[in-house]
Structure formats: structure tokens, C-alpha cells
Request: fold
Amino acid sequence: MARRNATDIASEMRRSIEAGTYRRFERLPPSRKLAESFGVARNTLRDALNQLENEGLLETRPGSGTYVTVQDQNQIPDAVGDSTPLELIDARFALEPHICRLCVLHGRREDFDTMEELCARMEAATNDPVAFSEADTAFHRALASATRNSLLIWLIGQINTVRSLDEWMRMRHLTLDPDIISEYNRQHRQILEALRSREPERAAVMMKEHLETARLSLTRAAET
Amino acid sequence: MARRNATDIASEMRRSIEAGTYRRFERLPPSRKLAESFGVARNTLRDALNQLENEGLLETRPGSGTYVTVQDQNQIPDAVGDSTPLELIDARFALEPHICRLCVLHGRREDFDTMEELCARMEAATNDPVAFSEADTAFHRALASATRNSLLIWLIGQINTVRSLDEWMRMRHLTLDPDIISEYNRQHRQILEALRSREPERAAVMMKEHLETARLSLTRAAET
DNA sequence: CCATATTGGATCAACTTTGGATCAATCAAG
DNA sequence: CTTGATTGATCCAAAGTTGATCCAATATGG
Reply:
């Protein structure tokens, strides 16, 4: 076994933290003890700790100790799968208004035609929550596609996989009555109009309104 | 078994690295030990290492060791790996301003203290682009963590893996001169102040300004 | 409130490990 | 044979580790 250097120790500890051996806000053993248990000099261990601190995994407070500042990744093995509908809405609230703005910049005629088509399909599905929901997902995906930004397209794709989850399915049937669907359809049309007339801010505002409606109907359903 | 030559060894090691046996930033065993374990002379092994270094998979630091520089490609989704720096900025433009707003809502004292710490570290790294970049990534991750939204935390985590990609690393050195770093530091402070005083919109605006600066310095570097 | 123990921070010179380089001897393939 | 690569040995310079010591900040307990 070769003599281990600071980088090796750092790698080892990084894995420990990511594996959850040490959890967020927990204090590590004192550097002297740690050095001993790794069989390495305290200076070397301190170098390792500094590396991890620079990566933002640890925080050391002189006189007090060294603390873990990140959550271990296994705690969120599938963040997408475990996220709640409200978390999802917040994430969409972050992404989609700006996607609308980019859509105005990069969207082409055929993109808007696709969305038009999907709007029509949603309007024909006022009484069919499942069909509506499918078209709705496709609409928001089309919106992302029109940005021509592969990263955003992928992120929206990831987010949309949540919608096929059980809890989400149940929520959908609780929230999607014909009145709500009509309201959504009206908003989709407004968004599309704003995009077509190349008004980025208006499109973004409409999208926020749309998501706000979704959030409201969600919290209302949760209270029932 | 025929006697293995340098190219054979290189192939074998290349496969090990791509399979993830050795992870990014991890140190390989010393060349003497490696040579022994491959049953080959150290000179031959060094030739193999040189081949891999020329391919950009490894980096050897005399007196220290040989380190893996590439990330296991299987770990990175294609969409994330293939995205350009400008796409990345657009994605951050979508996510981070709203993350700031949520941060005002859900952030706790200790979250802001962590960010404060990271600001201090970035300010100490005005002349060290690599150290600055690490702390910067950690700052934006801390911001996401403070939202307590596991989906957003995960999204930012995905986005941050992009930054460790090769093309990005090169860009970083082109863009991060001391003046730019100082400007970034000023903006980080402003964001943190706005968060502390619980002003969601001001924080979001500061973040937009920050990202706009980043976009500018990127396009400027691309023109050079 | 203070005294004391414990914690991390910093420094230093001696030592060890690391990769870099070279070269004559040896081996394998054409 | 001749050519090309591998071998094994040796020396080198760079970098890192060590172990010791002193310091400053914090925590603890009376």
C-alpha cells in the first residue's frame, strides 16, 4: 500500500460524506483523532479537509470543529421521483417563464403551429382529464423544444417524468374538473398568442399566471 | 500470453478509467507500483501513461502523482454533456433568479452563514481562477440547498456537472481574470445581502445582473 | 465570570515519495 | 541479421509528508 496523500484522504472522505456516513450539520471528529484514524499526519489531514472545504462539502470553525454542509446524495436517490407536487410547481415556476422568453427569441413558425395543434387537442379534451394531461405535457415540452436549448429541453423532460407518478396521477383527478381545464386552455392560448406576437414579457407573465392557477388548484385539492 | 507492450497497457487502463474504476481527480497508484502490478517495466508503463496523458485522460504532476482528469462519461446524461456554455447560461438564467426568491422564503440563518463563508473564500481567490471557480460552484449550490426543494437542488446539481467538463475548463481560464472575479464577488455580496434582508425581487434582479455579466464575459471571450 | 481544556491554524526543517530522464543490455518480430 | 521495443538500473529534481511546536478561537465547568 502506497503512502496516502492529502488527495487520497480527501477522495475517501468525499465518498464517506456522499455515502451518508456523515450527515449534514454533523461535526466530524477532531482533526487530531481523524488524522490518527486515517494513519496520517495532521498536516496531511488538514490539507484534505481544506480541499473538501473548497468544494463546499465542509465548513471548519476554528476552536469548534469541522462540519458537514451538504446533504448526502443518497438521501435524494431519485430527486425527481420523490419530489412533491408543490416542489414540482416551484421548479416549473423557475423554469417556464424564462423558457417563454427564450421561446420568443428562438421559436419558429412550425413550433408555434405544433403548440396550436396541441391547444386544439386540449380544448377537445375538456371532459377527459387523461387526454388533456397528455396534451398539456406535450405542450410544455414543445415550448421547451422551441428554445433550441438542449439543456433546457432535457431538464423539462426530466421534470415531466414526475407527472406519470402515482401521487401525481391521483392529484390530477382531484384537480382537473372541466372548469379548471377551460381555464388552463384559455391561459395556454394567451401564452401562445404572446409568443406569436413576439412579446417575451407578456408570455412570461401569462405563464406565471398559469402556474399560479395550477398551484392554487393543487393546494385547494390538498385541503379537501 | 504474449508480452504486453505500452499500447496494450494504455488500452487496459483506458478501459479502467472509462469504467469508473478510477474516478475524476483521484490519484493512480505510483508508477512503480503500477508497473509492478501490470508486470511490466516502469519505462513501459510510463509510455502508456504518456499516451493517456496525450489523450487528455490523465494529468501527471512530478513529485506528486498521476491523476484522472476526465469524468466517467456514463455518469453524464448526453444532453448535459453536449450542452454549450451559452446554453448553460440560459438555463441558469431560467433557474437561479427564482431560486433566489425561494431562498428568501425558505432560507435559514445557517444557510446564509455558509454562503457568507463562501463569499469570503471567493474574495480571497481573486488571483486563483480554479479556487474561485470551486467556491463559486459551491455558492450556487448552497443557494439551491437553501430552497429546501429537492428537485431544484437536483437540477442545479445536474447543471453543475457541466462546469467540470473540458470545454468549460478552458473557457474558465479565458474569462476569469482578476477584474471579472472582483465584479463577480461584488455581485455575490449583493445577492447575499438581498437574501439576508429578505428582499426576493431585489435578489432576483441581482442574480440576473450577475448572469448577464457572465454571459457578456463569455461572448467576449468567444470573439477573441 | 474566569480558568482550563479542546479545537483548528500556521509554520518549519528533515525526510520520503513521486515522476522525469537516461542508457546499455536484452528480447521479439520481420 | 536488423530493427524496434522492453527491460532494469541509476540518478535527479519537484512535491508532499512528517512530527513538532506555538498560536488563536471556542467550549466547558466551576
